């Protein structure tokens, strides 16, 4: 835009200089005619004739026309420059508004994502806190009642002796507390498969200690039927629950 303005100014100056030069030439011609000396007779020598009134009028018209063209061109180019500046200002305004809107939307999105993350963490923490000891005790009681009937069925199927039944109840009760505690941890969102497998191994190993080989094999078969997984080998490597019951 600055270059266009400079070009306009240069053209206008050139036209003005040309007009001034023509005017200067006319003035020079007017002043070059010597005034006749007083009382001097004409010597008959040729002298340059001054411009006629017609030539002066034509020259004046040409100068006025040239000046009018310059004014028109300057006005036209100035208007174009003004309109270009207005368009640029409008585009810049729209761009600034768009950038501001994008910045606001981006900030709002970041705040929303941060809020969702905070809410998720808050819910997780709250869920953990509401797992009070009383609720865990209620969970154990509920699962204990469910397991009690299952344990009696398992003892009957294994044909345990009275002494074996006592040991079975003891091991089942102690292991149940450990499994129930892990079940509460699962509710809190904590998982530990390795610890669970360790408890299964411990339970099977203790059961194997007072059962005959046939009884323990039958015990493992019961686990497989009820849990869909092996009750473990001789060292309890499977993933079945002790006592053949579910939590």
Care to describe what's here?
It is built from 6 helices and no strands. The two termini are 83 Å apart. It folds into 2 domains: 2-29 and 51-122; 131-244, no CATH class. It has helices at 2-31, 53-129, 133-158, 162-187, 193-210, 213-227. The chain has 247 residues and is mainly α. The longest helix is centred in the middle third of the chain and has 77 residues, at 53-129. The protein is rod-shaped, with a radius of gyration of 56 Å. Helix 1 packs antiparallel against helix 2. Residues 38-42 and 229-247 have low confidence and may be disordered.
Can you give keywords for this protein?
single chain; 247 residues; 2 domains; 6 helices; disordered C terminus
Short description:
The protein has 247 residues and is mostly helical. Helix content is 78%, strand content 0%. The chain has helices at residues 2-31, 53-129, 133-158, 162-187, 193-210, 213-227.
**Using only CA atoms, what is the Rg?**
56 Å
Major pleated sheet: none
**In the residues, how many domains can be counted?**
2
Query: What is the share of helical residues?
Result: over 70%
Strand percentage: under 5%
Structural class: mainly alpha
Q: Give the end-to-end Cα distance, rounded to a whole number of Å.
A: 83 Å
Low-confidence regions: 38-42, 229-247
